[in-house]
């Protein structure tokens, strides 16, 4: 299996001493109280194996968090803690795919999806989404499905497009899953990173989906602590049992001090999560306004930590791959070509940038990209 585009571009950024707006991680240390809770737990609580499914306190905290924020009726037993959301995706696919089962995916897609589906013995059926709307249609779903289709894997909010599925599209997907008797795997790691007053709607909460959805979340995204690798998968008890059995043969468990800290953080008041969203929206707007002033056409996005430059609309004739290669060496900024998220027939005129950075880093990156834009004439 090849190295991921994130590993490639981050390595190039390190070698060139470039500002890394490619891989999605904040440059701030994270919430001080949650860091202290992890440090305290490391010194005062057990560091031996916690239960494979996760500390009971964290499983209960996840269920309570979703009851308060998304009106879901999960029990603690329906939550399995994992070492990050990618492990949760892997465990889910390994638990639910039988060799030859077909899985519907949507491109642009997180680059772990396709190799994980194939390694689990599944057959990917990829639906191509395109800007500016990135919409899923009934026709595309029907064309991708067959008698072998068993699963549908959805990322919402969608990385790298930074789009949020509206209620109409989610209802369409829910009806399709019910009619076809499919299990939906919902990668919802960006559920708290939404802007413009838009609220995340979990597919699990729609009619007919409670017993056929695996909901995946990430403490790393919620608390801006991407290196912690604490995630979870939520599902009705019969499915959760299968997920836990797959998880036990992957990482088995997750560092208990981090679990304790996350369990405390999930109980924060609504105002705390709103303030985090507002801060990221301010950073998003700072990057977008700076790039627009420099002559770029930008889609700031309505969710995630990413915005995209539309190269064609900006009058830049380079492909996204060529643009991203050149700006590392010539501008000292790393970005990600959106074409890397398509297994075939890619969109080739969008470059993705991460705005989860300090004002100083954003301003310097904008200044460098402005000089590069001017050099193109």
Automatic annotation (TrEMBL):
<dbReference type="InterPro" id="IPR015424">
    <property type="entry name" value="PyrdxlP-dep_Trfase"/>
</dbReference>
<keyword id="KW-0032">Aminotransferase</keyword>
<dbReference type="GO" id="GO:0030170">
    <property type="term" value="F:pyridoxal phosphate binding"/>
</dbReference>
<dbReference type="InterPro" id="IPR015422">
    <property type="entry name" value="PyrdxlP-dep_Trfase_small"/>
</dbReference>
<feature type="domain" description="Aminotransferase class I/classII large">
    <location>
        <begin position="19"/>
        <end position="369"/>
    </location>
</feature>
<protein>
    <recommendedName>
        <fullName>Aminotransferase class I/classII large domain-containing protein</fullName>
    </recommendedName>
</protein>
<dbReference type="GO" id="GO:0005737">
    <property type="term" value="C:cytoplasm"/>
</dbReference>
<dbReference type="GO" id="GO:0016212">
    <property type="term" value="F:kynurenine-oxoglutarate transaminase activity"/>
</dbReference>
<dbReference type="InterPro" id="IPR015421">
    <property type="entry name" value="PyrdxlP-dep_Trfase_major"/>
</dbReference>
<dbReference type="InterPro" id="IPR051326">
    <property type="entry name" value="Kynurenine-oxoglutarate_AT"/>
</dbReference>
<keyword id="KW-0808">Transferase</keyword>
<dbReference type="Pfam" id="PF00155">
    <property type="entry name" value="Aminotran_1_2"/>
</dbReference>
<dbReference type="InterPro" id="IPR004839">
    <property type="entry name" value="Aminotransferase_I/II_large"/>
</dbReference>
<keyword id="KW-0663">Pyridoxal phosphate</keyword>
């Amino acid at each position: 299996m090849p190295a991921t585009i994130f590993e490639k571009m981050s390595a190039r950024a390190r070698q060139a001493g470039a500002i890394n707006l490619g891989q999605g991680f904040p440059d701030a240390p994270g919430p001080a109280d949650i860091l202290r809770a992890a440090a305290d737990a490391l010194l005062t609580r057990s560091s031996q194996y916690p239960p494979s499914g996760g500390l009971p306190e964290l499983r209960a905290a996840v269920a309570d968090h979703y009851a308060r924020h998304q009106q879901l009726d999960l029990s603690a037993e329906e939550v399995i803690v994992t070492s990050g959301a990618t492990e949760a995706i892997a465990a889910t696919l390994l638990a639910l795919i039988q060799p030859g089962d077909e899985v519907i995916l949507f491109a642009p897609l997180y680059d772990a999806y396709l190799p994980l589906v194939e390694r689990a013995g599944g057959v990917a059926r990829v639906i191509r989404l395109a800007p500016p709307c990135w919409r899923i249609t009934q026709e595309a779903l029907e064309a991708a499905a067959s008698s072998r289709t068993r699963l549908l894997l959805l990322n919402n909010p969608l990385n790298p497009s930074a789009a949020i599925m509206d209620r109409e599209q989610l209802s369409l997907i829910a009806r399709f899953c019910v009619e076809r008797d499919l299990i939906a795997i919902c990668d919802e790691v960006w559920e708290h990173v939404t802007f413009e007053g838009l609220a995340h709607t979990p597919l699990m909460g729609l009619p007919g989906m409670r017993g056929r959805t695996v909901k995946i979340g990430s403490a790393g995204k919620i608390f801006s602590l991407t290196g912690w690798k604490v995630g979870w998968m939520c599902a009705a008890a019969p499915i959760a049992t299968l997920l836990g059995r797959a998880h036990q043969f992957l990482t088995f468990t997750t560092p208990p001090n981090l679990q304790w800290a996350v369990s405390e953080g999930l109980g924060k008041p609504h105002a705390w999560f709103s303030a985090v969203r507002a801060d990221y929206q301010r950073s998003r707007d700072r990057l977008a306004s700076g790039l627009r002033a420099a002559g770029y056409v930008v889609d700031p996005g309505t969710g995630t930590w990413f915005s995209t430059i539309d190269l064609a609309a900006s009058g830049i004739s380079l492909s996204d791959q060529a643009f991203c290669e050149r700006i590392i060496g010539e501008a000292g900024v790393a970005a990600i070509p959106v074409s890397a998220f398509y297994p075939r027939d890619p969109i080739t005129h969008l470059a993705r940038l991460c705005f989860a950075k300090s004002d100083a880093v954003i301003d310097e990156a904008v200044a460098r990209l402005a000089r590069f834009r001017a050099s193109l004439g």
